[in-house]
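ok trying again, last paste got cut off:
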Amino acid sequence: MHRLNNNHIMELLLIPRPGDRERLLGHLETFSSNTLEEIVEVYNKSCEIGITGNQFQGVRLLALHKAFLNKCGSSPISWTDNMILALGKPVEMVDGGWREKS
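nice, full thing came through this time. structure:
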């Protein structure tokens, strides 16, 4: 499920399902060993593909959001009310962090 708005490209309502926690932890383990450059690449590819409404994609994006927070302290993915994931615009690396591409 996605929609367009002024602040985000697309949003997804993520409703927890059995097995999500284990999948989330698996993705977090993978992303924690990735460099920031690799995480930015994964994020930008996600922007290119868009939100499909798939539960597995939502769990992966949540893990990606947490990986950005762990590495940079901020994320281009927003997580609102513990249930709405939103992709922003594509990003680029700058000074050990990220910023939206112009």
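cool. Residues 1-7 have pLDDT under 50 and may be disordered. The first helix runs from residue 20 to 32.
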